[in-house]
Design a protein that fits this description.
By secondary structure, the chain is mainly α. It has 3 helices and no strands. The protein has one domain. The chain is globular.
């Protein structure tokens, strides 16, 4: 989750690293996305992956820290 990376202003470093680490452990990575730091976008992506795609595990990274949910 990153506003700047989702807009293409900065390369995503942590997402590809998490993917590589998971694959090195023998896991299959089925989805990867750059999502802006917006509650609606984050919620929509995670809800879809959990309820529709039915992924067993979802790992997230990014953002600038804790924030109050709107």
């Amino acid at each position: 989750m990153s506003d700047r990376s989702s807009r293409g202003e900065r390369a995503d470093a942590s997402g590809p690293l998490v993917r590589q680490m998971a694959q090195q452990q023998g896991w299959t990575v089925e989805r990867q996305a750059l999502v802006p730091d917006e509650l609606a976008a984050i919620k929509a992506t995670l809800t879809n992956w959990a309820d529709v795609v039915r992924l067993d595990l979802i790992l997230t990274t990014g953002g600038t820290g804790f924030a109050r949910a709107m």
